[in-house]
Write a structure and sequence with these properties.
Blueprint lengths: L2 H14 L1 H5 L13 H28 L2 H4 L5 H9 L7 H14 L3 H31 L1 E2 L9 E2 L3 H22 L12 H18 L5 H9 L2 H10 L7 H20 L8 H28 L6 H23 L1 H11 L1 H28 L1 H23 L5 H37 L1
Antiparallel strand pairs: 1-2
Helix pairs in contact: 3-14, 7-16, 7-17, 8-9, 8-14, 8-16, 9-13, 9-14, 10-12, 10-17, 12-18, 15-16, 16-17, 17-18
Length: 433
Amino acid sequence: MPSFSRRIWPALVLLLFPSAVTAEEPSLVDGWHDVWLFRFLVNILGYSTIIIPGYLLISYFKRTNYAETGSGFCFPLIKTCVFGNEAKTSLLDDTSAASRNEADSGSTLKQALKLIFCAAGLQVSYLTWGVLQERVMTRSYGAATTDQEGEKFKDSQFLVFMNRILALTVSGLWCIMFKQPRHGAPMYKYSFASLSNILSSWCQYEALKFISFPTQVLAKASKVIPVMLMGKIVSHKSYEYWEYFTAVLISVGVSMFLLSSTTDKHPSTVTTFSGVIILIGYIVFDSFTSNWQDNLFKYKMSSVQMMFGVNLFSCLLTVGSLLEQGAFFESLGFMTRHSEFAFHAVLLSVCSACGQLFIFYTINQFGAAVFTIIMTLRQAFAILLSCFLYGHTVTLVGGFGVAVVFLALFLRVYARSRMKSGRRGAQPLAQKV
C-alpha cells in the first residue's frame, strides 16, 4: 500500500470512528493497523481493486454485444463468465425431491444408518471447526511456559482464504468425479455471494476478539429476528402467529444470556459495542448471501456447483487483497514459525469443506427440517463444549436463556413441518372434491 494511504487511513479512522479505536490497545500510534474497523476498510479497498475493473469489463462486453459479435481464443471463456446460458429451470428441485422420495422408500435400518452418518458427520465437522475457530482467534502460539505471552494470529482474512481454497478444491474434484447438470448461470453472478460470504466469515472470526464464543453462537441462532423484520419492512411479508411467538422467545432468551453474562473477560463497554457491531455485520452479510444463492438456484445448477462458483471468486478476492496488503506472506511466515497453528488452520479448513458436503448430502437425503434440527443441536453442543474447554462461565439465568432460545428454535422446526404436512394432506382432498 502506498505510504500516502498509510498516513491517510489512520487519520480518517481516528476522525470518523473514535469509539472503535478506543477499544484497541493504548499505543494506537504504533499499532493503528490492529483496529478492526481499519482492517475492514482496507479489505474492502483490496476487493474493490478487483471488482471495479471486473465490472467495467463486464459492462463493456455487454454494451458491445460480445456474445453475438465476439470470436477468438478467449470467446468461450468470456461468454461463460459474462453471459452464460440464461435459461432458468426448476428441474433440480424435482430431481432432489425425487431422490428424497427414493430415500424414503428404502429400508428403515438403511435410513437410520444414513441419518446417523449425516448427524455424526455434521456434528464432528462443525464442533471441531468451532473449537478450532475459538482456539486460533483467542489464544496465543509459541509460549513455552504459562508466564510467556506467545504470539497471537490476527489476520482473519487469511483464515477465510484457507477455508475457501480447500472448499474450492473439494468441490472441484466432486464436480469432476460425479456427473453434474449443464451449467447455465453467468459466472460473474457468483461474485456477489462471494463478496458477502467472505465479509460474513471475516466478521465471524473477528468477532471472537471482542465477544465470547457462546455469545456468538446465540447471536447466529437468533438470525431469524432480523430476517423477519427485513421481510416485513422490505417485502411486506406476513408471518404466522407461531413465528412471532418463537421470535419473542428467542429475543427473551438471548437477552437473559447477555444480561447475566459476567464482565471479567470483557470489561470495556466499547469492546462489547464493537463485538455487537461486528455481529450485526455478520448477520447482514450472511442474510444477503443466502438470499442471493436462492436467486442463483433458479438456474440449472447443483449445490456443489454453487459451492465451486462461490469459493472460486472468494479465493480470487481474498488472495488479491492479501497480496496487496502484504499479509499473505506474513501469515505464511506465522505458519512456518508455529507448526501448531499450521495444523489448526489446515484442520479448520478441512472441517469447513467436509461440513459443506455433509450439508448438501443431508438436505438431499432428508430435507431441510431434519438438517435444521441437527444443526440446532450442534449449536447447543458447541456452547457446552466451549464452556468446558475454554472456561466460559454461564450463570443459572444465562443457562435458562440458552434453553429458551433452543426451545424456540425446535418449536419453529416442529410448527413448520406440521404446516407443510398439513398442506400436503389437504391437496388430495381438494382433488377428490
